[in-house]
Amino acid sequence: MANTYTWAIAYMDTKPSDDGLTDVVISCQWNCSATTGGDTPTNASNYGYAHFGPPSTQDFTAYPDLTQNQVLGWVWASGVDQAAVEAGLDSQIEQMLNPPSVILPNPWA
Fold first, then answer.
1. Residue 49: CB partners within 8 Å, gap ≥ 6?
2. What are phi and psi of 50, to 5 degrees?
3. Sheet bearing 21-35, strands edge to edge
4. How far apart are CA 43 and CA 15, in angstroms?
5. Which pTM was predicted?
6. What is the pLDDT of residues 74-102, one digit of tens each?
7. Residues with Cβ < 8 Å from 51, sequence gap 6 or more?
């Protein structure tokens, strides 16, 4: 069964003004979580930061009009590798479900 991924923007850092524009997003913290299906779901998550270059006055979106999908597009365009993040979460879940090693109690305890 394939994992389900949820990407979200936790918060955005803004510059009050930049080149005549107001509330310019300069960076954000993102997070991604993965969940397995089935009767006993297993979860893993990862987070990071993305920094953005100066905005273009021609295609600037006012802060109140931003959508999470738009900002996530900026995150991926900034160099965050969506496929690599999701593959890393897949690996975390695989190791939780099938650990490569375990610590057992001492047999004499």
1. 27, 28, 29, 30
2. -125, 140
3. 4-18, 21-35, 43-51
4. 35
5. 0.88
6. 999 999 999 999 999 999 999 999 999 99
7. 26, 27, 78
